[in-house]
Amino acid sequence: MLINHQGFEIHKAYLDEAAQAGLVEDIRKVSEQAPLFSPETRWGKKMSVRMTSAGRYGWFSDRSGYRYIERHPSGSHWPPIPESVLAIWRTLCSPQRDPDCCLVNFYGETAKMGLHQDKDEKEFSWPVLSISLGDPGRFRMGGQERGGKTHAVVLESGDVVVMGGEARLAYHGIDRIYFGRSTLLPKGGRINLTLRVVD
Ligand code: MD3
Ligand code: FE
């Protein structure tokens, strides 16, 4: 099922169970090469979401601010974006231009992501694609200004979201995780993959 509202395109249940399980396996391999870590915000507070990346760039944050960097904090290059993930981008976004970064977010029972805009990329003309795996999460989305009206939608395992057009610079975040509702990840939790063109 496809719902499209002002550049916010949700493909509910886009991935079947086998595709979801395959992605989890491919992401497990990424996190073996590039272990999950909790970035610090520019105010020195650890984020509750654990992260890693694949691709030419990975997203990073510390007291110096939010940015994309070419290596994992360990010093290694980020692993390549799995083909299974690229295939989804090529179908829903573009067969011409691959993303530069696949950000992997892992949410445990109490993790959240506050309302923010994604503006660390040099390019906003490409959409951002998001893949949800594991426990459902309540996603909140507003407009392009802070403090505006917001709408909540539950993102479930297998849902794929494409944010383009006006939605690309909309405020958004994850308020809560419905921990233990999915059996995809044996220990529970939610994985979100976001594919981005950075420069
Ligand atoms: C709306 N992640 O990593 S994905 C992030 O579920 C992030 O982990 C959330 O926000 C998550 O930055 C939401 C859906 C999403 C991704 C990018 C967007 C929504 C977006 C960019 C612009 C507007
Ligand atoms: Fe975001």
Structure explained in plain terms:
The protein is mainly β. It has one domain (2-196): Jelly Rolls (Sandwich). The chain contains two helices and 13 strands. It has helices spanning 17-33, 83-92; strands spanning 2-5, 8-11, 50-55, 58-62, 65-69, 101-107, 113-116, 128-134, 137-141, 151-155, 160-163, 172-177, 190-196. It has a seven-stranded antiparallel beta sheet with strand order 1-2-11-8-13-6-3, covered by helices on one side. A four-stranded antiparallel beta sheet has the order 7-12-9-10, with no helix packed on it. A hairpin with a 2-residue loop joins strand 1 and strand 2 (8-11). The N and C termini lie far apart (32 Å). The relative contact order is 0.23. The mean pLDDT is 96.
Mean pLDDT: 96
Question: What Rg is obtained from the alpha carbons, in whole angstroms?
Answer: 16 Å
Task: Please report the total strand number as a whole number.
Answer: 13
Per CATH, the class reads Mainly Beta
Q: What's the quaternary structure here?
A: single chain
Number of domains: 1
The parts where pLDDT drops under 50 for at least 5 residues are none
Tell me, what's the shape?
globular
Q: From the helix content, strand content and strand pairing, which structural class follows?
A: mainly beta
Name of the CATH homologous superfamily: Alpha-ketoglutarate-dependent dioxygenase AlkB-like
